C-alpha cells in the first residue's frame, strides 16, 4: 500500500513536489530555505510553470486556512512573497491572480493575525514595479476590505489599533499600485473616494486614542502616503470646505510641536500640498493663521536646535534633538511658506510680506532684542529664517506700483537689517530687494558681473519709468542709495555680495530710472570708487579691487543704456587702460574662483579712474544735470546711525570732550563735566530722535497740505505769509529812517551837564557787515 503511494508520489508533477518540499514537518521550523531556493530557481528557469505554482500554493493555503493550520499559512505566504520579488516575466500576471486570491482569503478571515499577514503581503506586492501591463485585474475588493479594517471595533485596544493600522497601510498600497496605472480604474472616482476618505478622517480625528494612526505608526515620515491621502481628501471635498481640512492640519501641527522633526516635516509638507489645492478655491480667513502657525513652529524649532531638547534643559531621560533634522524641518517650513504664498493674489501676498517682516527682530529702540550669547544666536537664526521665508514669498512677486509693493513701514524695517554685521543677513536683504524690483525677469542676466562691449546680447526688457515709480524714487531713492553705499563698505563682503549689489544697481537703472535717478546712481558709484581709492575704512585688497571692478561694470552698463557717445567713449577708454595696466580693477579678474589681485593699490594713476569732472562735462552736454553731477555723493545721516552697534569708543569719548569744551570757556572757572553714563546717552538719543521725528512729521504735514489742500486755501495761506513779511519789512524801514542815537553815547556840555546829541546818518560809521 505504502509502496503504491510512494510510486504515485514520484509521478506527481515536479513543481508540486518542489512546492511540497518547502513545507517542514513541524511548521514551527519555518520555511525550508534550501528547498525554497530550488523552487525559485525552477520558477525562473521555467516561467511558464509560474501560474501553476501559484495555483497550487493557493490551493494548499486555502486548505490550511480551513484546517486552522496557521503555521503552514504563514509559510505559504512567505514563499509567495519571495517568488513575487524574484520573478519578473510575462507570466507574472497569472501568478499575481493566484497571489491576490490568497491575500483576499486571508483578509476575509476573522483572525486578526491573518488579516495583518495578508495586508503585509499586499504592501510588499504594491512596492513591486511590474514589467507587463495588467488588463483584467481589479482592486475593488481590497479598497472595500481595507476601508472596513480602518473602522475596526475589536474589543482589545491593541489589536484594534493593529487592524486599523493595517487598513491604512493597505489603502496606501492600493493608491500606490493604481495611481500611475492607466489600465486600472481611476482611484479618484467617487466609488472609491467615498470609502477611502471617511476611513482616513475617522482615524485622523478619532478621540479614543491619544494619537492618530499617522502619528502612531510613523506614516508622516515617508510623506508620500500622507501627501497622497490628503490630496485625495482635498480633491474630494467641496472647495468651500477646504479650509476646514487646513485648520485641522494646523491644529495637528501645534499638537505635535514636540514630536520628532521628521514627523513635523511630514505634516508641514502635507500642509503645503493641501494649501496649494485650497488656494485654487477658497482659503478664507486661514491665510494669516497658517503663516502665523508656521512662523511659530519655526521659532520653536530654532529653540529646540539651540537648547538640544524640547523643554529647554537637558536632563536624564530627555529626548535629544538632532540639529540636522531640525534644519530639515525649518527648510520644509520655508518651502511651504513660499509655495503657498505663490498661489495668493497680490493683495494677500502683500499682507503676508508685511506680516513676516513684522516678526523679524531688529536692533532698534522700539524692537528690543534678546541679550547674551544664547539670545544673540536665537536672534540671528530667527532673522535668517524669517528673511529666507520673505525671500521665498517675494520671488516672482510682481506689482505695477512700487509704492504698494514696498511701503515705507516695510522698506524701513528691511533696510535696517541691511546694516547688520552679519554678512548672510545682508545678502538676504539684497536678494529680497532684487526680487521686488525685478518685474521683467532680468535678474538672471546680471548674475555674472562683466564689462560687455555690447549689452544688446543680454536682450534686456526695458520699459519707460512710470509715474508711480518716479514718485517712489523721489521718496525712497536716497534711502536706497545710502544702504547700497554702506553695504559696499562692509569688510565681510564676499563675491556673492558684490554680485547682488551689481544686480540691484542694474535693476534700479532698468526698472525705476529717469534722468535724475541715472545722475544719482552715477554719483553713487563714483563715491564707491572713492571709497576704494582713499580707503579710510582700511579695507582688504580684495574688497578694494571688487569695488573698482563693480564700478567699472556698472558704468559700462549705464553708459550703454544712456547711449551718449562721449560718455561711452570715456568709460571704454578707462576700461581698456585697465585691461592693459591694471586688470585687477576689472570684474573679469576679480569675480572669479581664484581672483588675480595686486599686492599694492596705493598711488592709482588718474588714467585708471572714472573722472567725475569728465562725466559731468559729457553728460551735461546731452541734457543731464551737470551741476548735480559735479557734487560728490554723501550719504544722509539717519536715526539708524545713532542706533547702530558700530559706534566706536573713540566716538563716545569725543562726544564727552565736546560736551566739556562747550561748557568750559577759557576765562571762566572750569565746571566739572557731567559724567557720561549709559542712561545719559540713552536719554540724549531718545530726545534727539523725538525732536527729529517731530520735525519729520511737521514736514510731512506741510507736503501733504500742499498736495491735497484746495488751491484757494493754499493761496490764502501764502497771502497771509506775504502780509506778515511785508509788515516786518515796514518795521525795519521805519527803524532805519528814524535818526538813531549817537554812536558815541553822550557828550559833555557847559557846566558839566551831559547832553544828548544826534549825529547825521551820513556821518555815522556802520559795521562792515552792513556795507553792500
General description of the model:
The protein is mainly alpha-helical and 772 residues long. Helix content is 64%, strand content 1%. It has helices spanning 2-10, 14-21, 33-45, 50-66, 70-86, 92-108, 112-126, 140-150, 157-178, 190-204, 213-216, 224-236, 242-255, 261-279, 286-307, 323-341, 346-358, 372-394, 402-405, 408-417, 423-437, 467-488, 495-511, 515-534, 541-562, 565-581, 587-590, 612-620, 626-630, 639-643, 649-662, 678-708, 711-737, and strands at 747-748, 754-755. Strands 1-2 form a two-stranded antiparallel ribbon. Helix 4 (50-66) packs antiparallel against helix 5, helix 21 runs parallel beside helix 23 and helix 22 packs antiparallel against helix 23. Residues 1-7, 207-211, 642-674 and 740-758 have low confidence and may be disordered.
What key attributes describe this structure?
772 residues, two-stranded antiparallel ribbon, single chain, mainly alpha
Task: Trace the largest sheet across and list its strands.
Answer: 1-2
Cα-atom radius of gyration: 41 Å
Strand content: under 5%
Gap between N and C termini: 149 Å
- Number of helical segments with 4 or more residues: 33
Q: What is the number of beta strands?
A: 2
List segments where confidence is low: pLDDT < 50 over at least 5 consecutive residues.
1-7, 207-211, 642-674, 740-758
Largest sheet: 2 strands, antiparallel
Structural class, judged by helices and strands? mainly alpha
Helix content: 55-70%
Let me know the average pLDDT: 79
Inertia-based shape: elongated
Amino acid at each position: 500500500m505504502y509502496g503504491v503511494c510512494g510510486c504515485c508520489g514520484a509521478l506527481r508533477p515536479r513543481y508540486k513536489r518542489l512546492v511540497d518540499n518547502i513545507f517542514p514537518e513541524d511548521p514551527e521550523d519555518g520555511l525550508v530555505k534550501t528547498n525554497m531556493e530550488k523552487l525559485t530557481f525552477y520558477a525562473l528557469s521555467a516561467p511558464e510553470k509560474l501560474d501553476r505554482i501559484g495555483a497550487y500554493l493557493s490551493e494548499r493555503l486555502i486548505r490550511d486556512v480551513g484546517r486552522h493550520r496557521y503555521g503552514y499559512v504563514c509559510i505559504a505566504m512567505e514563499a509567495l512573497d519571495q517568488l513575487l520579488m524574484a520573478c519578473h516575466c510575462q507570466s507574472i500576471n497569472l501568478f499575481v491572480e493566484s497571489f491576490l486570491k490568497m491575500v483576499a482569503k486571508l483578509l476575509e478571515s476573522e483572525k486578526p493575525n491573518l488579516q495583518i499577514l495578508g495586508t503585509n503581503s499586499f504592501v510588499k506586492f504594491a512596492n513591486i514595479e511590474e514589467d507587463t501591463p495588467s488588463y483584467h485585474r481589479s482592486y475593488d475588493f481590497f479598497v472595500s476590505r481595507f476601508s472596513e479594517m480602518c473602522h475596526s471595533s475589536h474589543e482589545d485596544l491593541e489589536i484594534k489599533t493593529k487592524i486599523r493600522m493595517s487598513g491604512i497601510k493597505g489603502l496606501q498600497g492600493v493608491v500606490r499600485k493604481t495611481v500611475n496605472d492607466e489600465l486600472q480604474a481611476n482611484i479618484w472616482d467617487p466609488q472609491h473616494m467615498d470609502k477611502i476618505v471617511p476611513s482616513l478622517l475617522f482615524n485622523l480625528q478619532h478621540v479614543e486614542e491619544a494619537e492618530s494612526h499617522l502619528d502612531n505608526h510613523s506614516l508622516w515620515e515617508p510623506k508620500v502616503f500622507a501627501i497622497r491621502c490628503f490630496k485625495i481628501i482635498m480633491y474630494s471635498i467641496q472647495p468651500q470646505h477646504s479650509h476646514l481640512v487646513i485648520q485641522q492640519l494646523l491644529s495637528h501641527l501645534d499638537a505635535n510641536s514636540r514630536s520628532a522633526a521628521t514627523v513635523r516635516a511630514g505634516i508641514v509638507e502635507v500642509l503645503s500640498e493641501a494649501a496649494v489645492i485650497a488656494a485654487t478655491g477658497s482659503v478664507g480667513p486661514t491665510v494669516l493663521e497658517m503663516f502665523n502657525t508656521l512662523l511659530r513652529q519655526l521659532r520653536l524649532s530654532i529653540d529646540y536646535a539651540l537648547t538640544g531638547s524640547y523643554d529647554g534643559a537637558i536632563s536624564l531621560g530627555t529626548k535629544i534633538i538632532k540639529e540636522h533634522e531640525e534644519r530639515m524641518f525649518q527648510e520644509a517650513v520655508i518651502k511651504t511658506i513660499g509655495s503657498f504664498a505663490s498661489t495668493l493674489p497680490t493683495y494677500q501676498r502683500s499682507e503676508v510680506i508685511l506680516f513676516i517682516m513684522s516678526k523679524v527682530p531688529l536692533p532698534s529702540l522700539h524692537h528690543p532684542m534678546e541679550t547674551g550669547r544664547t539670545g544673540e544666536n536665537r536672534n540671528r537664526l530667527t532673522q535668517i529664517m524669517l528673511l529666507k521665508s520673505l525671500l521665498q514669498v517675494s520671488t516672482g512677486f510682481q506689482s505695477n506700483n512700487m509704492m504698494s509693493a514696498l511701503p515705507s513701514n516695510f522698506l524701513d524695517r528691511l533696510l535696517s537689517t541691511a546694516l547688520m554685521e552679519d554678512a548672510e543677513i545682508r545678502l538676504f536683504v539684497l536678494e529680497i530687494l532684487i526680487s521686488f524690483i525685478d518685474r521683467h525677469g532680468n535678474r538672471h542676466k546680471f548674475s555674472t558681473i562683466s564689462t560687455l562691449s555690447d549689452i544688446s546680447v543680454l536682450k534686456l526688457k526695458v520699459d519707460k519709468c512710470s509715474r508711480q515709480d518716479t514718485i517712489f524714487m523721489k521718496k525712497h531713492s536716497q534711502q536706497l542709495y545710502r544702504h547700497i553705499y554702506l553695504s559696499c563698505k562692509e569688510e565681510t563682503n564676499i563675491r556673492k555680495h558684490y554680485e547682488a549689489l551689481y544686480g540691484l544697481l542694474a535693476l534700479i537703472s532698468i526698472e525705476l530710472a529717469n534722468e535724475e535717478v541715472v545722475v544719482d546712481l552715477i554719483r553713487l558709484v563714483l563715491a564707491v570708487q572713492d571709497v576704494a581709492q582713499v580707503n579710510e575704512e582700511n579695507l582688504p585688497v580684495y574688497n578694494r579691487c571688487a569695488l573698482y571692478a563693480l564700478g567699472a561694470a556698472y558704468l559700462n552698463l549705464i553708459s550703454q543704456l544712456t547711449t551718449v557717445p562721449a560718455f561711452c567713449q570715456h568709460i571704454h577708454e578707462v576700461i581698456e587702460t585697465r585691461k592693459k595696466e591694471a586688470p585687477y580693477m576689472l570684474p573679469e579678474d576679480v569675480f572669479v574662483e581664484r581672483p588675480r589681485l595686486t599686492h599694492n593699490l596705493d598711488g592709482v594713476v588718474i588714467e585708471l579712474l572714472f573722472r567725475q569732472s569728465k562725466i559731468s562735462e559729457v553728460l551735461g552736454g546731452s541734457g543731464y544735470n551737470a551741476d548735480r553731477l559735479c557734487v560728490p555723493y554723501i550719504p544722509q545721516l539717519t536715526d539708524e546711525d545713532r542706533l547702530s552697534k558700530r559706534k566706536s569708543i573713540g566716538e563716545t569719548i569725543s562726544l564727552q570732550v565736546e560736551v566739556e569744551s562747550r561748557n568750559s570757556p577759557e576765562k571762566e572757572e572750569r565746571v566739572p563735566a557731567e559724567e557720561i553714563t549709559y542712561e545719559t546717552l540713552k536719554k540724549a538719543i531718545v530726545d534727539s530722535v523725538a525732536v527729529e521725528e517731530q520735525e519729520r512729521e511737521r514736514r510731512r504735514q506741510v507736503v501733504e497740505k500742499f498736495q491735497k489742500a484746495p488751491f484757494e486755501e493754499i493761496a490764502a495761506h501764502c497771502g497771509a505769509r506775504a502780509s506778515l513779511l511785508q509788515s516786518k519789512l515796514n518795521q525795519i524801514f521805519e527803524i532805519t529812517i528814524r535818526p538813531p542815537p549817537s554812536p558815541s553815547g553822550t557828550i559833555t556840555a557847559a557846566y558839566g551837564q551831559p547832553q544828548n546829541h544826534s549825529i547825521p546818518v551820513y556821518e555815522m560809521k556802520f559795521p562792515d557787515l552792513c556795507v553792500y
